[in-house]
Design a protein that fits this description.
With about 260 residues, the protein is of the alpha/beta class. The protein has two domains: about 130 residues, Aspartate Aminotransferase, domain 2; about 110 residues, Aspartate Aminotransferase, domain 1, CATH 3.90.1150. Helices cover about 30% and strands about 20% of the residues. A five-stranded mixed β-sheet has the order 1-7-6-5-4, with helices on one face. The chain has a three-stranded antiparallel β-sheet with strand order 10-11-12. Helix 1 crosses helix 2 and helix 5 runs antiparallel to helix 7.
């Protein structure tokens, strides 16, 4: 069973409402809307630190690299095969957003929310039976998905080979089931301090590097105590575009900043 949406935050709100969640466990390195929508709905949130094996005890997981196999209420991932166990998988790529359900009741409750809480009758007759927000989304598919997954896997394998045992960063085993758009790396501690300079110089050189989310506990609205593994990942992680031509300019920039050093 599938539902399409135009907005991941609205779909997430519909799912939390349909699940009747009263308390959430969230990984602090998650999209801010995970915590923000929970606050809007009056749901209490507890942050649980990332584990070194990249597992999670979180109820909602943002699993875009297949670094682990989550078991959660809701799993957000790129399009491709469903990774892990969940009541619903939310998949997004290239503007196509879809939720895949195994549970008929959860599907119907979510569908009702996204139809504005309106129950349709014969002809023009209708009733409003629940809270909801009207969401009009067309069905969509990612064109050529299998070929795109194969292509992204080929570049990931190329990076795995070229980046093995390099002195600048560590890599992750990210799986082959979904469509990747970025390759995550974990900078060595000596590069934590110049990370902003590295990011800026790479982008000036035409390498569209990105970073992951700032931990929720660092944000004023969600502030809480620091968590050691999430803090380390926040300092270390960068996302490389899937482009084989970035390897040599990447080495040049990282070598330039390697000797600056870093201390906390």
């Amino acid at each position: 069973m599938r539902l399409w949406a135009t907005n991941s935050q609205l779909l997430y709100m519909a799912l939390l409402h349909a699940l009747g969640v009263k308390k959430l466990r969230l990984n602090p390195i998650s999209p801010t809307f995970f915590a923000n929508i929970a606050k809007i709905l009056g749901i209490e949130s507890e942050y649980v630190d990332t584990r070194l094996d990249f597992g999670s005890e979180a109820d909602i997981v943002h699993n875009f690299f297949e670094s682990y196999t989550p078991s959660s209420l809701i799993v957000f991932q790129n399009h491709g095969k469903s990774v892990g166990d969940a009541k619903v998988f939310v998949k997004k790529s290239e503007g196509c957003l879809v939720a895949e359900f195994e549970d008929e009741e959860l599907y119907q409750k979510t569908k009702l929310f996204l139809d504005g809480g309106v129950k349709r009758g014969r002809l023009w007759n209708y009733d409003v039976v629940s809270v909801g927000i009207k969401e009009k989304a067309k069905e969509c598919e990612v064109a050529g998905l299998e070929e795109k997954i194969a292509r992204s896997n080929e570049i990931v394998e190329f990076f795995d080979e070229r980046f093995a045992k390099n002195p600048y960063f560590d890599t992750l085993c990210i799986g082959k089931a979904t469509y990747k758009t970025y390759y995550p790396i974990l900078l060595k501690p000596a590069l934590y301090c110049p990370k902003e300079d590295i990011y800026q110089e790479l982008r000036e050189n035409g390498i569209a590097v990105e970073v992951r989310f700032k931990p929720l506990y660092k944000l004023t609205f969600f502030h809480s105590a620091s968590m050691p593994v999430s803090e380390e990942l926040y300092k270390a992680i960068m996302l490389l575009p899937l482009d084989k031509n970035i390897v040599e300019p990447l080495w040049e920039v990282l070598e330039k900043y390697r000797y600056r050093g870093c201390s906390f």
